Amino acid sequence: MVLNKVTSVGFMASHYERELRAVLIGSPDGVRAVTRSCNASEKARAMQVIRRPFLVVRAAGSGVAGAGDLLAVRGDISFPIEVKTTKEKKIYLSGRTWEQYLDLKKEGERCGLMPIYAMRLKGVRGDSWRILKVETDNLSGTPSIIARSIPSLPLTKNKRPYLDWDAGLPLHKFLALLCRDEESYSQTAEILRSRTDQWVAQKDARITREENEEVENESPAEWVKKFRL
């Protein structure tokens, strides 16, 4: 009985991994299958992955720490994916699942990747997948821009990350985000750089203005003291 239960759990997990893989590789049938009960707008967003698909390698069972269950690869971005299927909206990490999280974070920071969790909630209509990212500190290029729009794992009162389906980004929005044109990302990066430069210039101007105001407010006696030997 125990063997049958374990086999059933493993089968279900691999089933949903295949479901997500079919979407990411841009299979029209795969996308239609997961968006069957979605509205027209959600379906249209998800279908964008057909135009810009991924190569997806199934890493489950390989024993490589931090590799996740799937590895999605494309010319501009790659990311490991840990797939979780649940009937509950929240999953608290402990034991093996906590070690998985630490391994994902470690490898993400070591390799400059953006590890994600893909949560599949059973028994709901519409988009049943949600995406959450593992927070890392050294992203650059396209991944750093995409990461801005993906929520991180929320924290418990003890500041420990956990999975919350309601806090995640719906899969159709994630796909639309991933499949924007390269030109759009270049424009976004340029806008961000421009805003940063503008902010720095404003800060420098404010500091200069404050220094000038301090000089103007000094009494003549205090100002003369600075030149005394």
Describe this protein's structure.
This protein is of the alpha+beta class. The protein has two domains: 2-180, Trna Endonuclease, Chain: A, domain 1; 185-225. It is built from eight helices and eight strands. It has helices at residues 2-24, 28-34, 40-46, 96-111, 141-147, 171-178, 182-217, 220-225, and strands spanning 55-58, 70-73, 78-86, 90-92, 116-121, 129-133, 162-164, 169-170. The chain has a six-stranded mixed sheet with strand order 1-2-3-5-6-8, with helices on both faces. A hairpin with a 7-residue loop joins strand 5 and strand 6 (129-133). Helix 1 (2-24) crosses helix 2 (28-34) and helix 3 (40-46) packs across helix 6 (171-178). The longest helix has 36 residues, at 182-217. It is elongated and about 80 Å long. It starts with a helix and ends with a helix. The model is unreliable at 1-11 (pLDDT under 50).
Any key phrases for this structure?
229 residues, alpha+beta, Trna Endonuclease, Chain: A, domain 1, six-stranded mixed sheet, two-stranded antiparallel ribbon, 8 helices, 48% helix, disordered N terminus
How is the secondary structure organized here?
Blueprint (H helix, E strand, L loop, with lengths): L1 H23 L3 H7 L5 H7 L8 E4 L11 E4 L4 E9 L3 E3 L3 H16 L4 E6 L7 E5 L7 H7 L14 E3 L4 E2 H8 L3 H36 L2 H6 L4
Parallel strand pairs: 3-5
Antiparallel strand pairs: 1-2, 2-3, 4-7, 5-6, 6-8
Helix pairs in contact: 1-2, 3-6
